[in-house]
Amino acid sequence: MNVELQVATSSHVEDVLTLHYRYQVDSISDQDRADGFITTAFTKDHLTRLIEDENGLFIATVDGKIVAYAMAASWGFWSQWPMFEFMVKNLHDSTCLGQVINADNSYQYGPVCVDKSVRGLGVFEKVFEFALAQMSKRYPIMVTFINQINPRSFRAHTTKTSLTVIKEFGFNNNQYYKLACKTA
Ligand SMILES: CC(C)(COP(=O)(O)OP(=O)(O)OC[C@H]1O[C@@H](n2cnc3c(N)ncnc32)[C@H](O)[C@@H]1OP(=O)(O)O)[C@@H](O)C(=O)NCCC(=O)NCCS
After folding, report:
1. 16 contacts 57 by C-beta, under 8 angstroms
2. Core-most of 18, 77, 109, 173, by most CB within 10 Å?
3. pLDDT tens for residues 82-131?
């Protein structure tokens, strides 16, 4: 399988949204839900801003078809959603690289999504590492969070990447792990 990685452009938005809504909480099939879902309901405008303002959408394609995406952006971008606003307020409760984490030395990675046709085949690691390498040019620390009811995502991120759990927190009746790693 030949996996190609690239920074997405506006021409990719429609196909990324199609992949996204296959696994988004409001539209995912009951059968797929056990393997994880994405909460945020992104629009075309959100993804266009993510691409144009943040250069923060990364995709994997196989035979020209988008099979995975990873998002990453500044806390300023994410703060339009209350959950991230909450995270920004509490960034300083943890450290990474011996530094207190803040909105300047870190960015937020995620969500990530791999189509079920290619799960377990290394696409996750590839899109993760690609996104990390791109963002390492801008930030020393990556921060992310994982819902505790998503064990597949937790296992993938804690065994196949250098992320480690730095905190646990609750928001809106959900429990989350907060994770971080250095980018370079
Ligand atoms: C989360 C996701 C990106 C991971 O990519 P992936 O290709 O499925 O990851 P992998 O299969 O390589 O790794 C998952 C690991 O979890 C294990 N796993 C699967 N179901 C599990 C479960 N219910 N509990 C614990 N571990 C589980 C797998 O066996 C695998 O471990 P192994 O390789 O050691 O056997 C992908 O499943 C996905 O897109 N899910 C839907 C959207 C989502 O949840 N995104 C993340 C939240 S934003």
Report:
1. yes
2. 109
3. 999 999 999 999 999 899 999 999 999 999 999 999 999 999 999 999 99
Cα separation, 46 vs 48, whole angstroms: 6
Alpha carbon of 152 to ligand 1 centroid (Å): 4
Domain extent, residue 101, equals: 3-182
Among protein residues, the one with the nearest Cα to ligand 1's atom 40 is 36
**CATH code at position 42:** 3.40.630.30
Count up the domains in the chain and report the number: 1
pLDDT, tens digit, for every residue of 28-75?
999 999 999 999 999 999 999 999 999 999 999 999 999 999 999 999
CA 168-171-177 angle, to 5 degrees, is: 25
Question: Ligand 1 site: residues with CB under 6 angstroms?
Answer: 23, 35-38, 110-114, 119-120, 123-124, 150-153, 155-156, 159
